[in-house]
Amino acid sequence: MASNEEILAGLAEIVNEETGLAPESVEMDKSFTDDLDIDSISMMTIVVNAEEKFGVRIPDEEVKNLKTVGDAVNFISGAQA
Amino acid sequence: MARKVVITGLGATTPIGGDVPTMWKNALKGVSGARTIEADWVQEYELPVTFAAQVTTPASEVLSRVEAKRMDPSTQFAVIAAREAWRDSGLEEIDHDRFAVAFATGIGGVWTLLDAWDTLRAKGPRRVLPMTVPMLMPNGPAAAVSLDLGARAGAHTPVSACASGTEALHQGLELIRSGKADVVMCGGAEAAIHPMPIAAFASMHALSRRNDDPEHASRPYDTGRDGFVMGEGAGALLIEAEEHALARGARIYGELAGTSVTADAYHITAPDPGGLGATRALKAAMFDARVQPSDISHVNAHATSTPVGDKPEYVALKTALGSHIDNVAVSATKSQTGHLLGASGAVEAVMTVLAVYDRKMPVTINLENQDPEIPLDIVTTERTLPAGDLVALSNSFGFGGHNAVIVVRSV
C-alpha cells in the first residue's frame, strides 16, 4: 500500500520517463492533455507502466475518466485498497 | 528539357564516422568499421557470425532520450542523417508544400518488431507498447524525417533490399523532374544488427565468417572474400531543382544527372551471372544523364565482398562501358563500412558526390590478392580525379533482382 504522495512521485517518474517532463511539473491538479500535453499513445504507455509499478489494473474504459494527475492518483489508491 | 537537379546537402551516420566530415576523412584514409559485437546475445544464441560494422556514434549520444524512445533505431539513424543534410544545405525559408521525402530502408523496424514479440510472449498483449506499429513500419524513417523537417509534398519509402538507398535518389529525381516537388530529402537507413537477421543472413551463407579477424573480413574483389559484413547507419542527400538552388545562392556539390532502376527477373537472390539486369541499369542511367561511357571516370561499386556477387557487377560494368572500363577507377567502400543494406546506396551516394566535389576517391581496403577474373582498376590508396568535367556512377543491387544506378556530374 502506497500513500498518495508515493503514488504521485511514482507517477511523476513514469511521466518523466515517457515524455521528458520534469517530475515536479506533474502535480495533482494538472490535466494530462491540457497542461502536460500528453497524447493518447503516451497516455496508454503511462497507464500500462503504472499498472505494473503499482500492481493494479486500470481498465481501458476508466482511462478516459483520468483527466488530471489527481484522478489517476486517486484511482490507483482506490484500486490498491 | 528535364529540370536539372543538384545536390546541396549531405548527412550520414556510419560505421566509419558519425557525421559526413568524419566519415569522409576516414574513407579517404581507409579504415575498417567492423568489430566483434559486444552484446550478450552473440554468445546466448551461439551465432555463427560474431562481428559487424556498427555505427561509431550511438544514436543515444545525438538524440534526446524521449525523442529516441519513440523511434526504432533505423528511424533514429534516418533523422540524425537527415538533420545533418538539412543543416549542411543552409536551407531556412522553404515552401514546405514543395518539399518531399524519399527515404528508404531494406528491412525496417526489425528491432521494434522482435522486441514487441518478446514482450507479447513474456508479458502478454497489454504490455505491447502503443507506439509499436509506427515504430516498426518500414515507412517509419520517411515519416519521421517528414515530420521533423516539415516536408509535406509526400513522404516516400522505396523498398528494394540493398538497392533501396539508391532507388530513393531515383525517386527523388523523378519527383523534381515531374514538378511534384522542388526539394527532396533522399536517403536510406538500416538498423538490423540483431541476432535474428544475423542468423538469417548467415543461414543463406551471405555473411563473412572471419570471426577472428573482423577488420579484414570485408574484402571486395579479393580472392579470399567469403561474404559481406553487416553494417548499419544512414545516409541522406538533400537534392533540389537547380533553379531553386541558384536562386538562394546555395553551395552545390554536384548534379544528380541521371538514375535508373531495373529488375533481373532471373532469381530471387542470385545475381544474373551475365549481369544483364545490371548492364541495362547502367546503360539506362547513362542515357538518362545524357552521358557516354567515355565520360565516366569513377565508379562507387556495389561490391559486397561475396564470392558470387562481385563478378557479375564487373561483367555488367565491362559490358556497359566497353573498353573504356580500363580508364575507370573503382572504389568498393563496403570494404570499410560493411554492408548497410537499405542504407548502403545512400551512404555510397554521399561518397560519390564528395569524390566528384573534392576530386578525391575513397579507398578500397583489404585487397591483397585481386581476383584475376575481375581485372578492374581498384582504388586502394587515396587518389585524385583530374580537373574538368567529371562524371561518376554508383551502383546498388538487391535481393529480388533489383538494380539501381545513379549518375553524378561535377558542376
Automatic annotation (TrEMBL), chain A:
GO terms for molecular function: acyl binding; acyl carrier activity. The keyword Zinc-finger does not apply. Pathway: Lipid metabolism; fatty acid biosynthesis. Pfam families: PP-binding. InterPro entries: ACP, ACP-like_sf, EAL_dom, PP-bd_ACP. One of its GO terms (biological process) is lipid A biosynthetic process. 4'-phosphopantetheine is transferred from CoA to a specific serine of apo-ACP by AcpS. This modification is essential for activity because fatty acids are bound in thioester linkage to the sulfhydryl of the prosthetic group. The modification O-(pantetheine 4'-phosphoryl)serine is found at S40. It is found in: Cytoplasm. One of its GO terms (cellular component) is cytosol. Keywords: Cytoplasm, Fatty acid biosynthesis, Fatty acid metabolism, Lipid biosynthesis, Lipid metabolism, Phosphopantetheine, Phosphoprotein. PANTHER family: ACYL CARRIER PROTEIN, CARRIER DOMAIN-CONTAINING PROTEIN. NCBIfam families: PRK00982.1-1, PRK00982.1-4. Carrier of the growing fatty acid chain in fatty acid biosynthesis. This is Acyl carrier protein.
